[in-house]
Structures are given as structure tokens and as C-alpha cells.
Design a protein that fits this description.
Layout lengths: L2 H9 L3 H29 L9 E2 L3 H4 L1 H13 L3 E5 L9 E4 L6 E5 L5 E5 L19 E2 L6 E2 L5 E3 L21 E4 L2 E4 L10 H5 L1 H9 L6 E10 L3 H6 L7 H4 L14 E5 L2 E5 L23 E5 L3 E8 L3 E11 L6 E9 L10 H31 L7 E2 L4 H18 L1
Antiparallel strand pairs: 1-18, 2-10, 3-4, 4-5, 6-7, 7-8, 9-10, 11-17, 12-13, 13-14, 14-15, 15-16, 16-17
Helix pairs in contact: 1-2, 4-10
The protein binds FE2/S2 (inorganic) cluster (FES) and fe (ii) ion.
The site of fe (ii) ion has 6 residues, from loops.
Length: about 425
């Protein structure tokens, strides 16, 4: 079956059959990645860029550049705001506050996801402060009420608002698009619609579609701050060079250091960092490999990493980490959310997933981000002319930094 036919059948009536196609494609793609990665382990090699790359420390410390990044990368471009499973049913609401304005996602009666500025059109109070399932949304300040499509349907004391047209006071929409379980929004009022497949690029989009994220269900989400530039925090997700040294008893005990299989998709990438357990079956024929989803880390430019990986006991999880810049150049917010994949929903317990979630949050917040915070501070006081260097083995980071600089340069023109 051609790729295009696969895509079409998946969105057509043969949903059951297509479901098994996705599972097969996911397995093939994951096994190909494991095969490459096992070869790297055996040969003691890793994928490499042409050479090292110097970075301007201002990329981490310059406030004007930071503000430009917030605008160009986080407010004007589509951002991953949620998965389908975060608001699965009509009337479900979900907040996405990390990209600047508070954004309200709501699934309407017909099942379509709407997104609005989470702002009451009376006097700009935050409309929804406690997301959940709702028929209508009422403002806690004076009780103006909106339906699931953002229309103003209730206004107490109407005699005070003669001459104000209710139809002009609907919620302010922002573009939203739901595609194979990924919900993207763009924080531009009344902005152009989002074409997710064009945004991701066809080949990368197909890899993400294999994961069947539309069936994944949320297990736990944690939001926490870090006193570093968002990129210093994000950089820790893009290489396994540091596993053995920074994480000797946590990640370093589970995965090999400095072995990476890297696939580039424009600004996006997929990165595999081999787990120690690969060696248990590396000499067996592929048909005998355990059927675990190991598809590596999918990075969606600029700030999102989807980890499709295994938990001991043959279980699998999807862990989504997103790093957002705060207003200050040296502060960022991370949201880590762990999901149970659709093909694991028949496993009733949830502890395996919440424990994995807690483990990742602990490692990131106490090990990775302690380095980010100290390094950020050092970068601020480093002598003129000092430039951090991204090695040829840190090729994923090179690509990210290059794309960010290119986009900022284009915006300057
Ligand atoms: S600000 Fe919302 S009802 Fe007044
Ligand atoms: Fe790390």
C-alpha cells in the first residue's frame, strides 16, 4: 500500500483495518530505528554533523532577542496545546496559558475544538479558571455567559448595556486545528487557519500519525519553572552525550551515552538514544524482538518533545515535554504530560504510567535543570568572546539553534 493510500484509508471508513496498519507502520518504523541504533552500539559510533558549531551566548542572555523569540516562535506560529484525550467529549474545556495570553480550548457540541482568548468580553476577566466539562461558560466577575462556540448568550442586567450589540461581544477566536490527536493553536486573534500537515511536513507528520495519539489518554501532567533560558532547558532533551556523566544512577543506568540515531525533518527531528535492554535481543532475528513501541524522541519545533518509549514489563508510554519562555530571558516553564497509548488502554492499572511520569519529572527538575540554572548564570558572566560549542554529536541541537536564528533573521527583514 502506498503512503498516500495508507493515509487515506486511515481517515476513511475502514477504521479498524487502518488501525492495524498504523500499528504495523509504527512497529516497522520503531524497529528500523532500533536496528540502526544497535549497529551504533556495536560499532561504538553515533550520528554526527559535519563539525562542531559555535553559539552566540546572547542566544541565552539577550532580552531583546528573547522578546523576539517569544513573538516569532511562540505567538505567531502554531503551538502544540493539547492532545485529543485532554478534552475528549463535547463541552470539555482545557487551558493553554504558557505561550503568552491565556487560551481556552473547548470542544463544541459537534465535536470540533474551538480556541479563544480566555477573556470575558465585558471587562477582560479570565473567563474559565477551572476547566472541566461545561454546557456554557460563565464569567465569575459579573456572570456574562458564553456558549461552546463563543457566542454571548447571557448578560445579567441588560438595561445597563443598551446600544451594545451582543453579537459583537462573542469570545475572541484564535486558530485551532486537531490532527491525528494533536491540537495546535496559534495565539493570533482571528488569525489564518492552521494546516497541521503542512506545518509538520508530510514525512514527519506521517511518523507522528503512526503513534495514534488520538487514542492516547492523559495519566499525569506537571508544570514547573526553571531559572534558565528556555533553550538551555530544552537543549537537555536533544542529546544523550550527558547520560553517563550527569545521570549515572537514573537515565544513565538505563541508556547508553553518546549514541544517537538522528533523522532530520526540516526544523523537526526524531532522535533515538539506545536503551540498555536493546542488547538483550540485539543478536536475535527481528521477528523475536519484543513488541514494544520504541520510536525515540519526536521533536516538534520549537519546544516540544514526544517520547515514545517503553516501561518495564512490556508496557509503553508517551511522554510529552514542552518548554516555554517566561517574560524574563532567564526563566522558563516546563510542562511534562504522560499519556497511556491507545494500544495500552486495556491495561487497567495506571501506576506504571504515573510512576514513570514522576521519575522523569524528578530527573529533569533535579538533574538536568540544575545544570541549566548554573550554566545560565555562568553564561551571563562569561567573558566577551566566549562562545559555547555544540559538538558534531550534538547535531540535533545544532539544527534547532540554526533554525531559530534563521527564523529571527527572516522576521527582521
Ligand atoms: S468581566 Fe466578565 S462579566 Fe464582567
Ligand atoms: Fe538529561
Amino acid at each position: 500500500m502506498s503512503d498516500q493510500a495508507t493515509m487515506n484509508s486511515a481517515s476513511g471508513q475502514q477504521a479498524a483495518e487502518a488501525g492495524s496498519d498504523w500499528a504495523r507502520l509504527r512497529r516497522e518504523s520503531g524497529n528500523a530505528l532500533r536496528r540502526r541504533t544497535i549497529n551504533h552500539i556495536k560499532n561504538g559510533t553515533t550520528d554526527l554533523a559535519d563539525g562542531p558549531m559555535l553559539v552566540d551566548p546572547g542566544a541565552y542572555t539577550d532580552s531583546a532577542r528573547h522578546e523576539q523569540e517569544r513573538q516569532v516562535l511562540f505567538q505567531q506560529r502554531p503551538m502544540l496545546a493539547a492532545l485529543t484525550g485532554d478534552l475528549p467529549e463535547p463541552g470539555d474545556t482545557f487551558l493553554f496559558d504558557e505561550t503568552g495570553p491565556s487560551i481556552l480550548l473547548v470542544r463544541n457540541k459537534a465535536g470540533k475544538v474551538n480556541a479563544f482568548f480566555n477573556m470575558c468580553t465585558h471587562r477582560a476577566a479570565k473567563l474559565v479558571t477551572e476547566p472541566g466539562r461545561k454546557n456554557r461558560m460563565s464569567c465569575k466577575f459579573h456572570g456574562w455567559t458564553f456558549d461552546l462556540d463563543g457566542k454571548l448568550v447571557g448578560l445579567p442586567g441588560p438595561e445597563g448595556f443598551k446600544g451594545i450589540n451582543k453579537d459583537d461581544r462573542g469570545l475572541i477566536p484564535v486558530p485551532a486545528a486537531e490532527w491525528h490527536g494533536l491540537i495546535f493553536v496559534r495565539a493570533v486573534p482571528n488569525g489564518e487557519p492552521i494546516d497541521v500537515e503542512a506545518h509538520l511536513g508530510k514525512a514527519f507528520a506521517r511518523e507522528l500519525a503512526h503513534l495514534e495519539l488520538e487514542k492516547a489518554r492523559p495519566m499525569k501532567s506537571t508544570r514547573f519553572g526553571v531559572n534558565s533560558n528556555w533553550k538551555y532547558a530544552l537543549d537537555t532533551y536533544g542529546e544523550g552525550y550527558h547520560f553517563g556523566t550527569l545521570h549515572p544512577t537514573s537515565i544513565g543506568a538505563l541508556a547508553f551515552s553518546n549514541i544517537m540515531s538522528y533523522d532530520n525533518y526540516g526544523p523537526n527531528h526524531r532522535l533515538a538514544m539506545p536503551r540498555a535492554e536493546f542488547m538483550e535481543y540485539s543478536d536475535k532475528p527481528e521477528e523475536e524482538w519484543p513488541d514494544t513501541t520504541y520510536n525515540g524522541l519526536y521533536y516538534i519545533f520549537p519546544n516540544t518533545v514526544i517520547n515514545a518509549n517503553s516501561i518495564k514489563g512490556g508496557k509503553q508510554f508517551y511522554g510529552i515535554s514542552r518548554v516555554f519562555p517566561n517574560e524574563k530571558v532567564d526563566e522558563a516553564t516546563t510542562v511534562i504530560s504522560t499519556y497511556k497509548p491507545g494500544h495500552m488502554l486495556d491495561v487497567e492499572e495506571t501506576a506504571s504510567w504515573t510512576e514513570m511520569h514522576d521519575f522523569i519529572v524528578k530527573v529533569v527538575s533535579t538533574e538536568d535543570y540544575s545544570v541549566s540554572e548554573d550554566g545560565q548564570r555562568n553564561m551571563k558572566y562569561a567573558p566577551a568572546g566566549f562562545k559555547p560549542v555544540l559538538g558534531a554529536n550534538e547535531l540535533a541541537l545544532q539544527n534547532i539553534h540554526r533554525h531559530i536564528s534563521d527564523l529571527l533573521a527572516q522576521a527582521d527583514k
